[in-house]
């Protein structure tokens, strides 16, 4: 299995990596990178495409009253 990327959008401006990890539990991302601080977007890398697809099921759940959008971007190996 290859790592896979997802994009999270709609994050609260004060969100930190710890908030992203907590939101995605029990799935554990390998890496979280905020694209621009306070933009509400971050890149999340999972160990497998299956984990990324499982994380996307949390789409439209809320974090601090904001609906979070998750999109699978691609397999990193491609």
Automatic annotation (TrEMBL):
> Where does this protein come from, organism-wise?
Dreissena polymorpha (Zebra mussel)
Provide a Gene Ontology MF annotation, just one: RNA binding
What is the name attached to this protein's record?
RRM domain-containing protein
Name the UniProt key words of this record, in alphabetical order. Answer: Repeat, RNA-binding
Q: Does the entry feature the keyword Repeat, yes or no?
A: yes
InterPro entries on file: ESRP, Nucleotide-bd_a/b_plait_sf, RBD_domain_sf
State which residue ranges cross the membrane. Answer: none
